[in-house]
Amino acid sequence: MTVIAHISDLHVSRFHFDEDVFMQAVSEINDLQPDMIILTGDITSDGYYKQFEQATKYLELFEAPLFAVPGNHDARNLGYLTFEELIGEKSWKLTMGDELTVIGLDSSSPDENRGHIGSPQHMWLEHQLDECVINENFSIIALHHHVISIPQTGRERNVLSDAGDILKTLTTHEVDLVLSGHKHVPNIWKINNTIVVNAGSLCSTKLRGKINNSYNVYNINKEEIEIFLHNVGGEKFLFGKYPRNKL
Ligand SMILES: [Fe+2]
Ligand SMILES: [Fe+2]
Fold first, then answer.
1. What is the pTM of this model?
2. Which phi and psi (to 5°) does residue 208 adopt?
3. How far is the CA of 74 from the centre of ligand 2 (A)?
4. How far is the CA of 223 from the centre of ligand 1 (A)?
């Protein structure tokens, strides 16, 4: 079984980051010993160099390998350059064994809140997903912005501007899991054979109503995918369970 922890929207900063909640989450996730951690952006609140320096120190506390994509907040104040210097590539592909492929996409644009993938990255994604189909890999896409609107988030503003075309590519290639953040609200949609999951905010104080700080855990085995929602310092529960597309 492969275990993946999905965290998002840390918002490292003076005002929107709850260090106690973060440390609790680190301890819980390290106890789970996941195979990897996927972080879907908004690592910082303003993209400042100092916030990224602080964030790298926090992220080092996780024991599992961690892979991150940038969020709209990370792309502010030249943060899109700092991300590459201190965190890593903004879009990437990794394969685990010969069965699992994870692709990170950069949906951010400098100093803009909107999400956008754009033609060059879309073409690259198509090519990578063609390979996943040929190799019959379990495929996961990680990006900050949501591809489908999320309930309880008010007026829609930041769904990917090229959501329709990206969604078409994801579903026709039967991508198994699409992981996003941005709205600070956990959610699952299933479109055709693709499960589209949003993570809540791990440790930011920017929460809607009574929604808690949380993270998602995916248990992937040969038959099924279990998705657990963990409230930091609180309950965990089964959020969704789906049969695998490719057996
Ligand atoms: Fe955020
Ligand atoms: Fe965001």
1. 0.98
2. -95, 125
3. 8
4. 33
